[in-house]
Amino acid sequence: MRAAILSVPSEKGKTRKWTATTLTALARFAELEFYGSPYRGTDGVRAVDPRSLPTDDEIIEAWQKIEYSEHQMIFALMATFGLRNHKAYLLNPETFAGSLVDVKGGKTGERIT
What we know:
This protein is mostly helical. The protein is built from 4 helices and 2 strands, in the order ααααββ.
């Protein structure tokens, strides 16, 4: 099992980590004494990419180019509240209250943004 983990190239940190975790679980199931954690490696350090956000003028310019008012509304909600594209469709329209919106569901559950 150790050899299997170490056969995964070190630059494939997440794959090696997954392999170690899986083989540790298999060893536990087979009642073998093996712990893959020391062989997991690291995910590696990646260069940080600073977010490049559009200016307010660029957002307004993009919004004005949208043909349909319904799509403009979705775009405006996404820009204003930082919603992901699918979250704009999970809002509770009855609870729009100025600077707050109520997200009805989704992967992270209900909340007020």
